[in-house]
Design a protein that fits this description.
Elements (H helix, E strand, L loop, with lengths): L1 H4 L4 E5 L6 H11 L4 E2 L2 E3 L13 E3 L2 H9 L3 E7 L2 E6 H9 L4 E4 L2 H10 L4 E6 L3 H11 L4 H16 L6 E4 L3 H13 L12
Bound molecules: guanosine-5'-monophosphate.
The site of guanosine-5'-monophosphate has 15 residues, from strand 5, strand 6 and helix 5.
Length: 198
């Protein structure tokens, strides 16, 4: 297997807010502790239960802007009024050490990574339907009405871009979605990322 001999793989995980990416990833990471989850920086306020340094690095706008200006982010984007970005150094370090890294990021960030790392495995998670997505976003009760409206509008745009991604998985039946994800990640013969490209 190539990843045992050299670098790890870069895996990009995208899909509309509320599609269940987080739950899929949590279960995937539990059964594959060799995978490294990249913790993003964000200017969004923590939700109840979210831990700084585990779910996100929660930073002020000025700190985020400095990180972006100084090239510390592998990619970044604005989403529903907040900034989100991937700290570059830990990702490159893990890949160099042979670990595969997962980025859970939105569409604009995924497009940036596609430019820098065309070898990355790109996965898009789709909801069974847009109505179902709205039910899930409202059901989790974590966002204000204006945030929900922005997230739903953005979800529609993201879903329209799903076919830009190598792998598309519909998260209808959870176990089936997880099995498809594992098959896509572990049976794929993709190339290692070219770290010199960054
Ligand atoms: P949430 O506020 O629901 O945690 O995340 C909102 C969106 O931001 C999700 O689609 C999530 O995947 C995306 N996101 C999280 N971290 C990053 C990041 O580092 N970069 C980018 N581009 N998007 C991110």
């Amino acid at each position: 297997m190539e990843e045992r001999m050299g670098h790890g793989k870069l895996i990009v995980f995208t899909g509309p807010s509320g599609v269940g990416k987080g739950t899929l990833l949590r279960v995937l990471l539990r059964s594959h502790p060799d995978l490294y989850f990249s913790v993003s920086a964000t200017t969004r306020a923590p939700r109840p239960g979210e831990v700084d340094g585990k779910h996100y690095y929660f930073v002020e706008r000025s700190a985020f802007e400095r990180m972006a200006a100084e090239g510390e982010l592998l990619e970044w984007a604005e989403f529903a009024g907040n900034y989100y970005g991937t700290p570059r150094q830990p990702v490159l370090e893990q890949i160099r050490q042979g670990r595969s890294v997962i980025l859970e990021i939105e569409l604009e960030g995924a497009r940036q990574v596609r430019q820098t790392f065309p070898e990355a495995i790109q996965v898009f998670i789709l909801p069974p339907s847009v109505d179902e997505l709205e039910t899930r976003i409202r059901g989790r009760g974590q966002d204000s009405e204006s945030a929900i409206v922005r997230r739903l509008a953005r979800a529609q745009e993201e879903i329209e871009a799903a076919d830009e991604f190598d792998i598309q998985i519909v998260n209808d039946d959870f176990d089936q979605a997880l099995a498809e994800l594992e098959a896509a990640l572990f049976n794929s013969n993709c190339r290692e990322p070219d770290l010199a490209a960054t």
